[in-house]
Amino acid sequence: MKGLRKSCAPIKPTGTKTVAGLIATSNGKALENTLVTVEASTSANPFKANVKTGSFSTLVGENSNVKVTADKNDNPLNGVSTFDLVLISKHILGTQNISDKYAVIAADVNNSGKVTTSDVVELRKMILGIQSNFNNNKSWRFFDATMNEEVKINAIAADATVKFTAVKVGDINGNANAASAPRTAATHEFTTADQALVAGQTTELVLNGTEGFGFTMNYDVKSLEVVSVDANSAVIENGTITTAQVGSEFKVTFKAIANVTLSNAIAINSNVTAAEAVVNGEVANVALKFNNKVSGFELFQNQPNPFRGATTISFNAAAAGNYTVTITDVAGRIVSTKTEGAVKGLNNVTVELNNAGVYNYTVTTGNFTATKKMVVIE
């Protein structure tokens, strides 16, 4: 008919075949920003692309030998926390086996082919901030249906589809780049007695009582110095202690270099190691409370949660004074920080985040600090 035109699909060059594929986690979420390489024996120039949406497609010469690989080695702490240390330890002890084949690969942190205490040691170093990358492994590994890390097609005669399952090393419970929102966690309070220290006095702080826990502790370098910490903790820089405990205690000995009240000089947050505890097999938020000092402080879950764009963080302050809200991502990087004045009673803070993911928010006011999780959705 007059005025009508036929719509035609792009014509594939003669003598070529399509190699297309999908890269996704075991829970089906497409993995972004992955380098895909497709090599063909008939071409000196392999196809290389940073796949942003998890899918790729290219043409190769018919009857050529083809090899497809995927690579992603960024943000090694994505999805990694003390909870993963607990899960690996339980697997090694035989009290709770890791049955999922991809989770077993994730637990083999040092890529030795088996899960041992060496994996716990290396992962703890990563969580504590002692080392920044895996020594003998990459952040992500990729497997086809037969558990091969590269796909080979000999003398390709038809279009081919390649599917890789992406495994985040160290992330045993599979929450790296999670698409779905976790349930709101409870809060585990570490309680200790406040102390008025005089210059030259030493004191030992001991925190325990859960299957496992981790956090970052900041201390005032003008009033305290660290004498010692336990073997599962580290002073990664002056003023910052990280810890990752599995069935053990956090111990730090401070020496006062000026007269100071302990509650005014230390705080728990997620700046390096995420503040969380494992209680009865579940992940909980963490708060530090001084039982003879603080009363009336309470941090509430942000509303709405999950959210897009903006959410409100509310907390109850025992007295008027300054407060600080710090937002960190799952890797412990600070996304934003805000310090303003708080009134006695209920305070509301509006924060805006545009990038989807799981975040920690920490509110510090006076001598109390608490951390909770929140989720931004697309």
Describe the structure.
- By secondary structure, this protein is mainly β.
- It is built from three helices and 27 strands.
- It folds into two domains: 16-178, Carboxypeptidase-like, regulatory domain (Immunoglobulin-like, Sandwich), CATH 2.60.40.1120; 187-376, Sandwich (Immunoglobulin-like), CATH 2.60.40.
- The model is unreliable at 1-7 and 178-184 (pLDDT under 50).
- The strands form six sheets. Strands 9, 12, 14, 15, 18, 19, 20, 23, 24, 26 and 27 form an eleven-stranded mixed beta sheet that branches. It has a four-stranded mixed beta sheet with strand order 4-1-8-6.
- Strand 2 and strand 3 form a beta hairpin.
Overview in brief:
It contains 3 helices and 27 strands. The protein has 378 residues and is mainly β.
Which helices and strands, and how do they pair?
Elements: E1 16-25, E2 34-40, E3 47-51, E4 55-61, E5 66-71, H1 82-93, H2 101-107, H3 117-128, E6 140-143, E7 151-153, E8 160-168, E9 187-192, E10 196-197, E11 202-207, E12 212-219, E13 224-229, E14 233-237, E15 240-246, E16 250-256, E17 260-261, E18 266-269, E19 276-279, E20 282-290, E21 298-299, E22 309-317, E23 321-329, E24 334-342, E25 345-353, E26 357-365, E27 368-376
Parallel strand pairs: 1-8, 9-20
Antiparallel strand pairs: 1-4, 2-3, 2-5, 5-7, 6-8, 10-17, 11-16, 12-15, 12-18, 12-19, 13-16, 14-15, 19-20, 20-27, 21-22, 22-25, 23-24, 23-26, 26-27
